[in-house]
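Researcher: Please predict.
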Amino acid sequence: QVQLVESGGGLVQAGDSLRLSCAASGFTFSNYNMGWFRQAPGKEREFVAAIGTGANFVKYVDSVKGRFTISRDNAKNTVYLQMNSLKPEDTAVYYCAASIRWTIGTTGYNYWGQGTQVTVSS
């Protein structure tokens, strides 16, 4: 019943931009904080960005500050991740997740999507 479906990934060149979307269903989207995480081959899943229920609070990992922007549209039950100035080190599977409480830790999120691949060539 609960679903988080990511889209928008792809293969791009360094310096290009991508906009990821995550469509949510099966729960009250406006009551949940939303986050983006990523996992590269051989590495643990890491926090990328999070946005609060009312969009007053946002948080980014240092490596993406100034390049990525998280946003949400509660009317559309969708969270976005605008990624600019992409670097090869951004290459990973990107996951969206939902948490009833504000957190940047993976263990605090209740629901997870299936992921979308982002590949950045040098």
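Model: The chain is about 0% helix and 50% strand.
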